[in-house]
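Minimal example, chain plus iron/sulfur cluster.
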Amino acid sequence: MNCTLCPVNCNTDRQLKKGACKCGALPVVARVSAHMWEEPCISGTKGSGTVFFSGCNLNCRFCQNSEISRTGKGVEMSVGQLADLFLAVADSGVHNINLVTPQQFSDVIANALEKVKHKLNIPVVYNTNSYEKPQSLQRLCGLVDVYLPDLKFYSPVISKNYCGRADYFEVAIKAITEMRRQQPVNVYDDDGLILRGVVLRHLVLPSCVEDSKCVLDWVAGFDKTMPVSLMAQYFPPHHDDKYNELNRRLTVREYNNILEYFYNVGLTEGYEQDPESATEDYVPSFDFSTYEQLTENIKNKDI
Ligand code: SF4
């Protein structure tokens, strides 16, 4: 059947060839590990069990995982193997199963979770770029405990230039509204680890302070109880001749400007990051070619 899973609507028969997201019908996983660098309520002390999916339905110029998002590099597996992988991650002692860049596989992820959700004793986190259809997200209702959506851009000009989609903001806010409908209240355990809810992420980009302010305006009008993770970790993954403003890191002044605005619009719940921490050292390795190598790496912490 031709794919219209996400708003790209490329209508590709993924049984026969790859869609615009660089993915065929079966899930492809590029890395599994205990990740220590998510927000404290997600990584905790034992790490978040990240499952990195290959491909992507956006084309962000500054993608920090382009090695897998642009190429589809990774290990292809059946839905049954993906379900077993989720069980193995849960058995490894991490705080949660963290599905990274899952949107181009949301249907097969739902199929896999339906098989094993009742056996999972930790939350399932859905870590998405938010370029998704609400009806696709509805398949995940009851299967995903925590949504971790990006809200990357406000301006259609900026989103067209930087990720190829002028409608990014309009699409993303509808998707985030559906996520909050499914998980309307954030619930944490005694150690502050999230069990259910939504944590919104915004990566502050160099020279985009006004755009970031518009994003925060929307959050403040939507739901002030929804935490916002204001990320400062941008670094230029390569030199971009067309968009020179992306060829530098964020300044402390830019980040502090956004942080001040966050409080000015009445937001109080969230996480901040040190702009000085931006480094490509945080980009993990994706050198796995077999299912066994992936599952073996579950025991390793990204530190
Ligand atoms: S998920 Fe991939 S194949 Fe399906 S519509 Fe989106 S880009 Fe096209």
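The longest strand covers residues 28-35. The domain at 2-302 is CATH 3.20.20.70 (TIM Barrel).
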